[in-house]
Amino acid sequence: MSESAEVPLPPWGDAIAGAVGAVLANAAVYPLDIVKTRLQTQIKKPATAPETNEKKDLEKGSAAEVPAHHDEHHDIYHDTLDAVKKIIGKEGLGGLYGGMFGSLLGVASTNFAYFYWYSTVRHFFQRRNRSTHLTALQELAVGAVAGALAQLFTIPVAVVTTRQQTQPKSQRKGLIETAKEIVHEDGVSGLWRGFKASLVLVSNPSITYGAYQRFHEFFFAKKPHLAAWEAFVLGAASKSIATLSTQPLIVSKVTLQSKPRPGHPKFKGFVEVLKYIVEHEGLRGLFKGLGPQLGKGLLVQGILMMSKERIEVLFIALFALLRKLRAQRLAQAAARAAAVLPK
Prior knowledge:
The chain is an all-alpha fold. The chain has a single domain, classed as Mitochondrial carrier fold (Alpha/alpha barrel). 71% of the residues lie in helices and 2% in strands. It is built from 13 helices and 2 strands. The chain has helices at residues 2-6, 11-28, 30-41, 51-60, 80-91, 100-129, 136-165, 175-186, 195-200, 203-219, 228-257, 270-281, 290-340; strands spanning 44-46, 65-67. It is globular, with a radius of gyration of 25 Å. Residues 43-71 are annotated as: Disordered. It holds the Pfam family Mito_carr. The chain crosses the membrane at residues 15-35, 95-117, 137-162. Belongs to the mitochondrial carrier (TC 2.A.29) family. It is a multi-pass membrane protein.
């Protein structure tokens, strides 16, 4: 820890550490990403059951659910396990990894941009305040600014990836081809679909941070530094609160970025998506895919932070070694220069 204070990482070093950690974390749980995206982009509504089956449905105490408009290329998933079974059954094990390259590219670019801007903006606040300490409100502002800038530059990759993840294997195209398809349909602005929802979702890391600080103060008030497992548990708990608070917006953003299914309207904004989902699926529909969303978020955050911390330690050690070697070379050069000077 003392080394990090002596040799702080530059913004690009922090950005690389965050990007690598995010790629490792998301690669480890990628199937959950596919499943939650498929669950969040399907829209179901109560079926008009045949008269012979209506009584059976009522006896079971639940209305049957069918797609709002039947599409032979898309299955309807009832839960996480059902989605996994149907994806493997129809597309093979590789179906759980469809669009992975584009997704990891998006993860790497988003996290690189986020941590770069976070480090840059944070240093700006520190210089302005002439202090290394920031208030909780300033920390939240730093995270919000960094998140907004990261989304502005990287959302096109997320739009393309979401389109790939929601397409059946038989219709799935490569990264460039998918981007061209989106531009052909909606123009260049189509690559920024869901941007407003993404900006609102900048509140997600802000909520995570605020909850984490409150948990720290409540459970470990006398400990300035937490053990790895303590940080992981508090991080997971705070991430759960942030996800539960913003899940409807997450569903809305993913729906906006996916290709409209046959019979579904082409949404213009996230409020329109929210109204449509509530109309067809009720309030519960705003939280579809919550299980895999939570699972993915908790695992990704844990692996990301552990990986990022280790990479930062390596970078700090490397920078310290480079500075030491540079100092040695300067000392040797000075000694040689002194030796040739006339006495």
